[in-house]
Amino acid sequence: MNVYLITGASKGIGLALSKELMSENNVLICVARTTNEELLQLGKEKECHIVFLEYDLVNIEGLEELIKTMVAHLPANPHSITLINNAGVVDPIGRTENNKAEGINKSITLNLTAPMVLSSAFIKHVKDYPIQKKIINISSGAGRNPYTGWSSYCASKAGLDHYTRVVSQEQDGEINGVKIISIAPGIIDTGMQEKIRSVDEKDFELVGRFIDYKEQGQLSSPEFTAQKLKRIIESKTFNKLDPILDLREL
Description:
It is a single chain. By secondary structure, the protein is α/β, with parallel strands linked by helices. It has helices at about 10-20, 35-45, 65-70, 100-125, 150-170, 190-195, 205-215, 220-235; strands spanning about 1-5, 25-30, 50-55, 80-85, 130-140, 180-185, 245. The protein has a 7-stranded parallel sheet, with helices on both faces. The radius of gyration is 18 Å and the shape is globular. One of its GO terms (cellular component) is cytoplasm.
């Protein structure tokens, strides 16, 4: 059995990836602010064991308990354990001087602090399992290129990438360590993209380009993205991957 803990599992890439990973050989522990009943029903139909945990990741004090819950749901003799840090927000969108402390704090907490805390707890609590252990951080090209109006989002994703580099370096020297990667999925047709297209050009000067992406059919679907992510996650050469990746190049 393969066990997956997926954050942001109720919509977008997280929902599509949860559906893609469903099988009788997998256990899914899905985390989101609200339960997705469609996902639970699909799990029953596919005879996949699913646990849905309603939790707001901004409450970082309880994140280690999420990992403990995952460990408590591990089946006997699991084949692999994977943490997928997918949840995130693009807000606040706007020039730096117009962003408020609350929005900046939420962005950094969801996009960076929560994945760091979850990853730290994951590494600690699965340390004694002599099986394959993986962490997949869903990053963004915004972490590798600056975009006016996305200061918090760019900074948080850049931080996530560099955090991944450090943890990868630390775990490389461990016996039966955790393999961690940070992967930018590309431009995906999700609610986040809808949010981006709705903002004023004075807050995000590239909004016209993102509207064009949608109108010209240049956005990847969550389902197609999930299929590609699944192939990478299940790849026999996963442990040889570079820590920083772009899905469009794979």
